[in-house]
């Protein structure tokens, strides 16, 4: 049964003199607990598609359903993690993490306990009273992950959350995020330009093409890779085989822009 469904979603950006067709006829379905990646060149509409799923951008036509219910902008079921962590520098780490419950005016005292537990689970023990300026980029993104998870969203949207990090930190966070989301049985959609990241983290990869943004092909990640942590996946023989297939699909679309 589909958990998230996009049914013929199309989106146009309008200006005073013209319009741009950003997305054309996007249809897909994602199961609960599944991790999928949207992969494609700049300008193919990956981030726009995430914004539509989040209810931030209203699509021109088509339908988006979460558990058979139309998505709304105020839906707490959606968690959004971006490339930048957007932590408030004047607030402590714990205060930053608890922004969501504060916005929703939750007074449950168990929320603070849960926040501290999540910080501990991602390796951030003893920093609740520190400020973001004292943390590394990787630590800040872990705080952003906890802030997102604290609201207990049904689905997480990850818009290139590791792209601003150094490679070693990026690999460590891939492992952490993948392990954490599996432990909580969270459904997730990752936007990335990185073929290796998509293969290492996702169950399925939706390759997109640009002008207009469309899904050109879907790759199923072999079960042998899905059972491993992202860092280990890169060492598996089937990793390179899938990498080459995805690369060829992207190259073919870049070489045939009129198709």
Explain the overall architecture.
It is a single chain. This protein is of the alpha/beta class and 259 residues long. The protein has 2 domains: 1-77 and 155-259, P-loop containing nucleotide triphosphate hydrolases (Rossmann fold); 82-152, no CATH class. The protein has helices spanning 46-54, 93-97, 99-103, 110-121, 137-150, 167-183, 195-201, 223-226, 230-233, 237-255; strands at 4-14, 19-30, 35-39, 61-66, 69-70, 78-81, 155-159, 187-192, 204-209, 214-220. The relative contact order is 0.17.
Topology diagram in text:
Elements: E1 4-14, E2 19-30, E3 35-39, H1 46-54, E4 61-66, E5 69-70, E6 78-81, H2 93-97, H3 99-103, H4 110-121, H5 137-150, E7 155-159, H6 167-183, E8 187-192, H7 195-201, E9 204-209, E10 214-220, H8 223-226, H9 230-233, H10 237-255
Parallel strand pairs: 3-8, 3-9, 6-7, 7-8
Antiparallel strand pairs: 1-2, 1-4, 4-5, 9-10
Helix pairs in contact: 4-5, 5-6, 7-10
Question: What attributes does this structure have?
Answer:
2 domains; Rossmann fold; 37% helix; 259 residues; 6-stranded mixed β-sheet; alpha/beta; 4-stranded antiparallel β-sheet; 10 helices
């Amino acid at each position: 049964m589909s958990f998230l469904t996009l049914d013929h979603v199309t989106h146009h950006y309008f200006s005073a003199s013209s319009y741009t067709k950003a997305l054309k006829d996007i249809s897909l379905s994602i199961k609960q607990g599944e991790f999928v990646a949207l992969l494609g060149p700049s300008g193919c509409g990956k981030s726009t598609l995430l914004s539509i799923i989040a209810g931030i951008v209203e699509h021109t036509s088509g339908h988006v359903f979460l558990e058979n219910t139309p998505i709304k902008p105020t839906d707490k079921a959606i968690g959004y993690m971006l490339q930048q962590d957007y932590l408030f520098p004047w607030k402590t780490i714990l205060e930053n993490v608890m922004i969501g419950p504060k916005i929703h005016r939750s007074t449950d005292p168990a929320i603070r306990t849960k926040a501290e537990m999540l910080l501990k689970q991602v390796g951030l023990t003893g920093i609740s009273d520190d400020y973001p300026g004292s943390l590394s980029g990787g630590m800040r993104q872990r705080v952003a992950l906890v802030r997102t998870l604290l609201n207990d969203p049904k689905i997480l949207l990850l818009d290139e959350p590791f792209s601003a990090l150094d490679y070693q930190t990026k690999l460590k966070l891939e492992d952490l995020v993948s392990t954490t989301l599996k432990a909580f049985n969270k459904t997730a959609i990752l936007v990335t330009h990185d073929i290796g990241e998509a293969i290492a983290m996702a169950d399925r990869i939706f390759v997109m093409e640009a002008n207009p943004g469309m899904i050109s092909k879907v790759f199923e990640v072999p079960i042998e890779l899905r059972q491993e942590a992202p860092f280990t996946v890169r060492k598996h023989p089937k990793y390179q085989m899938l990498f080459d297939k995805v690369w060829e699909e992207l190259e073919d679309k870049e070489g045939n822009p009129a198709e």
